[in-house]
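Notes, Module 5: Reading structure tokens.

Key idea: the token line is not a picture. It is a compressed description, and you learn to read it the same way you learned to read a sequence, by spotting repeated patterns. We will look at two proteins. The first is printed below with its tokens.
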Amino acid sequence: MKEVSVFHGAGNPHRAPLQQALVAVKKRAVRVYRTHVMGAASYVFTTTSKDVHLGLGVLDVEALRTLGAFLNEEFKDGGTELLLSLDQDSQGRKEALLVTMTCPEALVLNFTLSPVH
């Protein structure tokens, strides 16, 4: 297997811009959380919100599959993003997630979930 270093080596013109981007991300302390559910239909839910990740984590496998199937059905009209409304919070504000989908023709559907503030 070939091992490639992002920070050492020469010849790849993409190395320096990638290094700069990675250093910038590291300075911001951004975390990306992924929740996977695999099976006949496989889904990956990605978020930078720890609260959303923990919320997904309390769902059982069947509930995650149902969520993936629900979102997949909502994206069938060809849209690239949707606003998923949730219950109101304790102060009466509506909670919502901005959801985008990538790889709609792939075996694994990827949904990115971002809280709306």
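Here is the second protein, with the sequence above and the tokens below, as before.
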Amino acid sequence: MGERIDETLVDKANAPIETEAGGADIPAVYWQITTNMQPGFTWVTIPQGGNLWIYYSWSQEPAQTIYVWHQGGTTTPIEPGENIVAVGPGDMIIYALASPDDSIKLAYQME
């Protein structure tokens, strides 16, 4: 289901955010979105482990690919509608659209 992920890109996507102020304004737990780490793909890094609630839908065309990537390389497909997926810190929601004209609706939060 999922694409093979280059571990060096995972390290870059999961790298902590650095600011000029030394990070004082960055919350301890935050979601991080990385676009085009692999051309056309969006990665949403999950900040902590637990059960992830995900809602997914589309209007014209579904995503070319959409899944949760787990540390170690296994994947869980994301189906239309509501999904509950057990995740660990650093796992990622990964998706790519078939065309730049497509759009999807994606909602997510920790339960």
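Summary for the second protein:
- The chain has one domain: 7-110.
- The radius of gyration is 14 Å.
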